[in-house]
Amino acid sequence: MGSARRRCTPGKPSSAAWIPDTSISGKRVVRELDDLIARRGRPAAIVSDNGTEFTSNAAIGWATATKVDWHYIEPGKPTQNGFVESFNGRMRDELLNETLFFSLAHAKAAIARWATAFNHCRPHSAIGYLTPAAHAANLAATNDLLRNPDQLRRSSVAPTALLRQIDQRTLAAAG
Question: Taking 50 as the threshold, does the pLDDT of residue 17 lie above it?
Answer without folding.
Answer: yes
